[in-house]
Amino acid sequence: MAQTTIEILYPEFGNQAGDNGNAMYLRACLPQAAFIETTFGEEPAFVTRDDLSLILLCGMTERQQERVLDALMPYAERLAALADAGTPMLFTGNAVELLGNMIITPEGRGITGLGLFDFVTHQLTPRRFTGVGLGTFQPAPGADPIDIVGFKMQFTQAEGKNEKWSFCTLKQGFGMNKKSAFEGVRRNNLIGTWFLGPLLTVNPPFTRWLLDTMGEADAVLAHEEVAMRAYEQRVKDFATPGMDV
Question: How much is the pLDDT for 30?
Answer without folding.
Answer: 98
